[in-house]
Protein: Bcr/CflA family efflux transporter
Amino acid sequence: MSHFRLALLLGMTVALGPLALDAYLPAFPDIAANLGVELGDVGLTLSAYVGALGLAQLVGGPLSDRYGRQIILLGGLLVFGVAAFMVARASTLDNMLLWRVIQGIGGAFCAVSVPAIVRDNTNGQEAARLFGLIGLIMFIAPAAAPSIGVLLLSMGDWHAIFLMLTGYAVFLGIVLKMLLFRRLPPHQPVTTPVSSLVTNYGRVLRHRTTMRFVGIQVLCFSAMLVFITHASFIYQQWFGLSNAHFSALFAANVGMMALLNLLNRRLLLTFSSTLLLRIGVLAQFAAMVALVICAWLAVPYWAVAACIVVAVGCMGAIIPNNMANALEYFPHLGGTASAMLGATQFTGAGIISALSATYAGDTLLPITLIMAICSLGAVMLAVGAPGAVTREAALER
Structure:
């Protein structure tokens, strides 16, 4: 299978996550009014989904190594679709939280399969370029998701957004079965005892280089998720912008991600992915510092939005380079290493975003400070990350 076709199908799969996270953001005020809760409480449904999305990958990763990518990915789509349908029927916040957790479990089985499939078929710089191409394709989802949500809200109510997610899961399952798994080489399952699938996590945890990259992923993603959790508050409540204006600014974030992703793919032909990772993390931190200053000085919304666009946009270069480096050292345990990366990323980010929703209050400055602190931690890890010339030594650690 060509890299473009593989990236297209896997990009459609990865798009499931942004759709589940971003499509219902414009509906937060309507959901809060419908369920009779505060707007901040609706943000807990985001954290619940992300937390489950992280923890469940610890189960899905080893299972995909043992039983193959197809059964885990398609099973995840089934769970995701059923749960999305039940979210649409939720009449209380507690009921919605429960089904969002189950939806996150299904999404986790899908999410963990994509990096593992990439690692099955590529490695090194080639893997970084393929991750970048997947990212470029799937950027359509987060760019379009809020606009899709606004469109569905104009035609009905917030329930239609989750019915759309059910339909997409069904469509994606059919497409992957017909066009992806029939053309991939047969997966060679891990034949070791089930108990060793658990101890394999110890191998990943003891690998200091891999865990450094895992830490970078957690902190950078946390900074972005804190913004996503508070995006409705920042733009619609704090600055009083309309749904359409909110969607346009959100799409600008994704546009910047796509632009930097394209630039990163070009630069990978000349520079190592580790060097480009450092540059991306440092650029994100610089944008975060500027964002804190803007929040402190109470500048107009366009200045705050500009800083956010740059900070979030840097993820277009950070994620593909970091994932390629993190998975480089485990060619035969791609599912397990991918699960550790995804579980830590989403669980850590989910906890941080939930804490920010609980304790940040109703002002902009604390939110931006949390984002900047996460970015600073990523800088500290990225500066000491080993370059390509030290990988042989790193493999022996």
